[in-house]
Amino acid sequence: MRTRAAVALEAGKPLEVMDVELDGPKAGEVMVEIKATGICHTDEFTLSGADPEGLFPAILGHEGAGVVVEVGEGVTSLEVGDHVIPLYTPECRECDYCLNPKTNLCQAIRSTQGQGVMPDGTSRFRMTDGTPILHYMGCSTFANHTVMPEIALAKVRRDAPFEKICYIGCGVTTGIGAVINTAKVEIGSRAVVFGLGGIGLNVIQGLRLAGADQIVGVDLNPDKRAMAERFGMTDFVNPGDVSGDMVAHLVELTGGGADYTFDATGNVDVMRTALEAAHKGWGESVIIGVAPAGAEIATRPFQLVTGRVWRGTAFGGARGRTDVPRIVDWYMDGKIEIDPMITHTLSLENINEGFDLMHRGESIRSVVVY
Ligand code: NAD
Ligand code: AHE
Ligand code: ZN
Question: The Alcohol dehydrogenase-like C-terminal domain covers which part of the protein (predicted)?
Fold first, then answer.
């Protein structure tokens, strides 16, 4: 069939909105009509050329919501008309990773996903002249229709608005999950969140849910302060306003160091500050941000010898088919908020504006509605 998509033709260039051809779902696959998609910083990271796994031409986008329009042979858990959220971290419930309660990183289709193809090694997308187009993170939600493996779709309730719950496909789940699943923050904790964007605000929202006493937010952009306060930030620090050592400043502000720190910037120098601002003896620092090809983290081993813990999280440690429908319920029941963070709504034709808004630091989440 023919559908409309924003195609990343090459790194560093704006997306090109065009008609593309999409083949129907093969065995174990499902075709989804995408109704809405958020634009995450990871899409920008890949489009910029900083992603070592970035391949072109590709259809980016991994934060979507939509409706099943066709199922391939052997699909049993989904039917036409089901509402779904695409999962860049699938949940096959059978691989060694799914069977190990210590991780959410299902590996059933990870290698083909990283190569931009479906599990059978081929792409369903091509240009109208026949040139193949690659999938992205197994999702490609910057297309009005996409094909995905059944194990990479979470079935969600039908009364939830697509243009809000698409954000649960990455930002909301990543931020809240980093607090609840990865750090397992306790009531009364002190925390520092670096980067108050689409992910960091959800870390703050998760910290409030978990009952943290102190939630320090750090961002170079003072315009991010008001929204972060609305979600529960208790103290704001702009590194540009700190004259001395940033670690010492944060250690003093948190009464000796934070119980938990979170990097949601992707900057490796910030990751070091986050680790070193964690409390001696027990502080844990969680890396969420994705760093460019070649970047490496560093600290004195003594920081770890003296009890700080450095860890990371992908998709907030969530098992998508199990956890995502629950997070949709939390939103529908008013336990968590999403609407204020969706600062801009765009048409697919204007998707590049969403990237411009992100570059200028003017948006939290831009959502494309088809
Ligand atoms: P965003 O652009 O909305 O927010 C980033 C924020 O960080 C901005 O407010 C920016 O001003 C701030 N910032 C940048 N450099 C800073 C610095 N040196 N000090 C303080 N603040 C700084 O991006 P986002 O969508 O929230 O994504 C944040 C990061 O998380 C990205 O690296 C993204 O790729 C990554 N991410 C990871 C996962 C995961 O599963 N691990 C999931 C989603 C996003
Ligand atoms: N391809 C990059 C890494 C990108 C990355 O870390 N992706 C996160 C999700 S970011 C969502 O916005 C993730 O899930 N990672 C686990 C995985 O298996 O990809 C690189 O550096 O190679
Ligand atoms: Zn994302």
Answer: 198-330
Each residue of 219-239: pLDDT tens digit?
Answer: 999 999 999 999 999 999 999
Determine the distance separating the centroid of ligand 2 and the alpha carbon of 106, expressed in angstroms.
Answer: 13
Sorted by where each begins, the domain ranges of the chain are 2-169+338-369, 175-313
Q: Are 194 and 264 in contact (CB under 8 A)?
A: yes
* Residue range 2-169+338-369 in CATH 3.90.180.10: yes
ipTM over 0.90: yes
Catalytic positions:
40-42, 62-63, 92, 95, 98, 106, 110, 170, 365
- Could you report the per-residue pLDDT of 35-94, keeping only the tens digit for each? 999 999 999 999 999 999 999 999 999 999 999 999 999 999 999 999 999 999 999 999
CB-proximal residues (5 Å) to ion ligand 3: 40, 42, 170
Copy the structure tokens of residue 364. Answer: 């939290």
Q: How far, CA to CA in Å, does 270 sit from each of 10, 121, 176, 181, 218?
A: 29, 38, 20, 22, 10
Q: Is the pTM of this model over 0.90?
A: yes
Give the fold, CATH level 3, of 175-313: Rossmann fold (3.40.50)
